[in-house]
Automatic annotation (TrEMBL):
One GO term of the biological process aspect: GPI anchor biosynthetic process
PANTHER family reported in the protein's UniProt record: FGF RECEPTOR ACTIVATING PROTEIN 1 (PTHR12892), POST-GPI ATTACHMENT TO PROTEINS FACTOR 2 (PTHR12892:SF11)
InterPro entries the record matches: CWH43_N, PGAP2
Keyword Transmembrane in annotation: yes
Membrane topology: Multi-pass membrane protein
UniProt organism field: Cherax quadricarinatus
Compartment(s) of residence: Golgi apparatus membrane
Protein name per Swiss-Prot or TrEMBL: CWH43-like N-terminal domain-containing protein
Any matching Pfam family: Frag1
Principal location class: Golgi
Ranges for domain CWH43-like N-terminal: 14-233
Stretches that traverse the bilayer: 12-36, 69-90, 111-128, 140-158, 179-195, 207-229
Lineage summary: Eukaryota, Metazoa, Ecdysozoa, Arthropoda, Crustacea
């Protein structure tokens, strides 16, 4: 008896990365647009009662229909490829980092953070703050902590080992550093304007916070999009296993 497998599906991992990020990206802009177009007053209202012009992300994706279902559908569909790409990065980091316990354990921690970030995103997307505030809050905190630490640790691990990388992978690393820096900067600027809004109730401050919040999410998506370069020459194969008699 001889065994052979036939390829049923052949997908470029670069394209998988593009589609995976495009789903939440498209849903994000669509939810913001629909909230501004049809739910402007409710989506931009705050406890201060001052004029604002942009909805927060949680308001745009979780409080109105059909935005809530558009966002949840996009996150649900994109989560499976995210887990696949996390496993791919586990192999990628093991291959390109020294085979010593420190780096191998760090790679496991990094992969864990990537997986938990994805799980937390599912949690905060499917449980809105109005449905269960505690679960939504914990999911949001886990998402932010894991995403920030994951981006930082990824850059630190690859920093001194770029010579092992190919040209596209080095380009990906440079973009990772830039996006990680932009993400952290936008996050702290968002916190500042959130503080200003809650403390002084100034008109428009919540809108600036919302804009910074958008940039935090967009730079996070772009960071994950760098998988396009890291796996540009890789393919995902789905095969049909066949057994034939020799």
């Amino acid at each position: 008896m001889s065994e052979s497998d036939a390829v049923v599906v052949r997908l470029s991992l670069a394209r998988v990365a593009v589609v995976t990020v495009s789903l939440p990206l498209g849903a994000f802009f669509l939810c913001i647009y629909l909230s501004l177009r049809f739910n402007f007053d409710l989506s931009t209202a705050t406890h201060c009662g001052v004029q604002n012009y942009l909805p927060s992300i949680s308001s745009a994706i979780g409080e109105f229909v059909p935005q809530r279902y558009i966002w949840r559908a996009a996150i649900a569909v994109h989560s499976a490829p995210r887990f696949l790409i996390a496993s791919m990065y586990y192999s990628f980091m093991q291959r390109n980092l020294p085979n010593i316990p420190f780096y191998q354990n760090a790679v496991k921690v990094n992969t864990f953070l990537n997986v938990v970030e994805n799980i937390a995103l599912l949690g905060l997307s499917f449980v809105s703050s109005k449905e269960n505030y505690d679960i939504h809050k914990v999911s949001f905190i886990m998402f932010m902590v894991c995403s920030e630490v994951y981006m930082l640790l990824t850059c630190l691990l690859l920093k001194d080992h770029t010579k092992r990388l190919g040209s596209l992978e080095r380009l990906s690393f440079r973009k990772k550093k830039q996006l990680m820096t932009a993400n952290v900067a936008c996050f702290f600027v968002a916190l500042y304007f959130f503080y200003r809004h809650n403390t002084y109730c100034e008109p428009g401050m919540y809108s600036v916070f919302a804009l910074m919040e958008y940039l935090v999410v967009l730079t996070n998506m772009a960071f994950h999009m760098t998988a396009y370069y890291d796996f540009h020459n890789h393919e995902l194969l789905v095969g049909e296993w066949k057994t034939a008699s020799s």
